[in-house]
Amino acid sequence: MSIDPSSIPNFGGQPEPQPQGGAAGPVVPDQDLVKQLLDQMELKYVVDDEGDLAAPWEEFRTYFMFRGEGDQMVYSVRTFYDRPHGIDDKAQILESIDDWNRRTLWPKVYTHTHDDGTVRLIGEAQLLIGAGVNIELFVSSTVSWVRAAIEFDKWLVEQLGLEPTAEKADEKPEGTAEEKAEGTTEQKPEEKAEGKADEKPEGDE
Fold first, then answer.
1. Counted domains in the chain
2. Which one of 92, 105, 122, 135 is most buried, by most CB atoms within 10 A?
3. Which residues are within 8 A (CB) of 97 and not within 5 positions of it... i.e. 6 or more apart?
């Protein structure tokens, strides 16, 4: 399967017009399709030690993951925001992300509190793909989710008066596998994968 470049919403440059064919049937996306899309979006990406695809920025990493089997397969775009927050700031952070979650469709953002009291944020959007999805829906959803992940970071910087770092990281993110396991200690049961704990943190919403 391949992606028609003309179906990609503008992420930066202007795509060349492409001839439109007939309506495509549903497809079950995979990692190769996501790589093709990220290439066309001109976004750098890496594959971590657990085989998950990630696009690294300076202050966050966005993962493109497939979980589940059969009709219950889920495509998850999950962003780990690396900026640490103090436990004393958690109430203000929760108030801010509650406002974001109420006013926007994605990503839905929640907190994870580490054992040392450091608070970090995780954003996520999901699409059920097991029965197949329209490829244009898959493309537009992925692009929109990536844009929204970037916008949330900018928005939070403005809301909390933080120091922005806008440049995209070029190197492979450090500690990727550990943070994915640590940052999703208690997420949603249906997303659990072997070797990872993926349940949402209790009391962090």
1. 1
2. 122
3. 109, 110, 111, 121, 156
Name the strand (E) or helix (H) holding 127.
strand 119-128
Q: What is the pTM of this model?
A: 0.73
Q: How many CA atoms lie less than 13 Å away from 49 in the CB half-sphere? A: 11
Residues 6+ apart with CB under 8 A from 15: 5, 6, 8, 40
pLDDT digits (tens, 9 = 90+) for 86-129: 999 999 999 999 999 999 999 999 999 999 999 999 999 999 99
Residues facing 37 on adjacent strands: none
In a domain, 31, yes or no: yes
Give yes or no for a contact between 79 and 63, defined as CB atoms under 8 angstroms apart. yes
DSSP 70: G
**Element holding 111 (H helix, E strand):** strand 108-113
pLDDT tens, residue by residue, 148-201: 999 999 999 999 988 765 444 444 454 445 455 444 333 333 333 333 334 334
Specify whether the CB–CB gap between 42 and 13 falls below 8 A. yes
CATH number of residue 150's parent domain = 3.30.1460.70
Beta pairing partners, 78? 63, 124
